[in-house]
Design goal:
ion transport; VG_K_chnl; potassium channel; 8 helices; elongated; Ion_trans_dom; transmembrane; single chain; mainly alpha
Amino acid sequence: MVGFCVNGYFIIDHILRLLTADYKLEKGKLSFLLYPLTFMALADLLCILPSLFLLNNSLRLFKFIRYSKNIQILTNVLKKQKDSLIIVGLLALGYIFISALIIFNVEPSTFPNFFDALYWATISLTTVGYGYIYAVSTTGKIITMISSFLGIAIVALPAGIITAGYMKEIKEL
């Protein structure tokens, strides 16, 4: 993606240089015909052309995705299960905020600001647990264990919803 942005910048730069050729060559309207033949303009064009071919291949990839039956099935599942997935997402966000609020009040010295508590709640919910921010009291450790167990269930819900919807779509074919 970054490559396309950089190449887009170079394409825009090349076009702007062409449009302002008269300032550089100072030959009036003839500058617009002469500039594309200068060494630097040809070098720029040679650098830009491969990216245009890559862009064309990328567009073909998007066409392939558009006509892929599996992608269409997955898109249908996401559309049909949108409400369930939104509810699970809201449940996860609510759980993160409640867990953060609890741990923030239980261990104010470990979590000096609410953002640290939110961060802890997020990594505990997803059971990632990087290890550089953690509860130190017994109560905080119990809260962490509960958060991790409930986090497994909350994180597994979207996968189950999508899988069930996918299987239903396949049976309807």
